[in-house]
Amino acid sequence: GENVEQHPSTLSVQEGDSAVIKCTYSDSASNYFPWYKQELGKRPQLIIDIRSNVGEKKDQRIAVTLNKTAKHFSLHITETQPEDSAVYFCAASKAEKLVFGKGMKLTVNP
Amino acid sequence: DAGVIQSPRHEVTEMGQEVTLRCKPISGHNSLFWYRQTMMRGLELLIYFNNNVPIDDSGMPEDRFSAKMPNASFSTLKIQPSEPRDSAVYFCASRQTSAADTQYFGPGTRLTVL
């Protein structure tokens, strides 16, 4: 089955810096890659997603890139703000079943 | 839209007791997913339904866990008997199969088994 690895597990940045989270997946048939943000005590919420027919997608300060050949995808957050502090999860799926990475705790220091 | 609704939000029970978690998916969504989240294991898919039919229950840890979806607007996850290692946050998520792949999560139920 699919296996999703996410790294680093924690990241601390200064406000205004950029943050990059990387994920790898094992199943080359996976075709959908969402990113979820989870604040402490809250539910995971989708922030951006990408499908396998697209290499990059951007939404304001966040962007996701996908390299199908290498089977990895990344989340980029620019101009980080304290409210970006949360745990970020990547996931991969080829049908309906999402397999999540273990998550990365991002701390943005004011 | 009210979003995915879960109840109870918190549950504290003693080992050996039966626990029932409830979920109401977003109206019009025909796929429903149950997840368990722990620090050690992260977010794990337990089971999911399409059009009220269980499709994949390979994530259900053992026979103590069971899930049902009697209709399009209600699902339950039952643990009987509960054990301390079942303590976790249980999320329900729903999705409209004919639309995008996005799964929308409920607020979760924090279960503590003493």
Provide structural commentary:
The complex is a heterodimer of chains A (110) and B (114). In chain A, the strands form two sheets. In chain A, strands 2, 4, 5, 9, 10 and 11 form a six-stranded mixed beta sheet that branches. Chain A contains no helices and eleven strands. In chain A, β6 (56-59) and β7 form a beta hairpin. With 110 residues, chain A is mostly beta strands. The model of chain A has no long low-confidence stretch (mean pLDDT 94). Chain A is 0% helix and 55% strand. Chain A has strands at residues 4-7, 10-14, 19-25, 32-38, 45-51, 56-59, 62-67, 72-77, 86-92, 99-100, 104-109. With 114 residues, chain B is mainly beta. Chain B has no helices and eleven strands. Chain B is globular, with a radius of gyration of 13 Å. The mean pLDDT of chain B is 94. The chains are: A mainly beta (110), B mainly beta (114). The interface between A and B is medium-sized, with 19 and 22 residues.
List the helices and strands and how they pair.
The complex is a heterodimer of chains A (about 110) and B (about 110).
Chain A: E1 4-7, E2 10-14, E3 19-25, E4 32-38, E5 45-51, E6 56-59, E7 62-67, E8 72-77, E9 86-92, E10 99-100, E11 104-109
Parallel strand pairs in A: 2-11
Antiparallel strand pairs in A: 1-3, 3-8, 4-5, 4-9, 6-7, 7-8, 9-10, 9-11
Chain B: E1 5-7, E2 10-13, E3 19-24, E4 31-38, E5 42-50, E6 53-56, E7 65-71, E8 74-79, E9 88-95, E10 104-105, E11 109-113
Parallel strand pairs in B: 2-11
Antiparallel strand pairs in B: 1-3, 3-8, 4-5, 4-9, 5-6, 7-8, 9-10, 9-11
* Mean pLDDT over the residues of chain B: 94
- Total count of helical runs of at least 4 residues of chain A: 0
Amino-to-carboxy terminus distance of chain A? 41 Å
* Global shape of chain B: globular
Indicate the mean pLDDT of chain A.
94
The greatest inter-chain interface is formed by: A-B, 19 and 22 residues
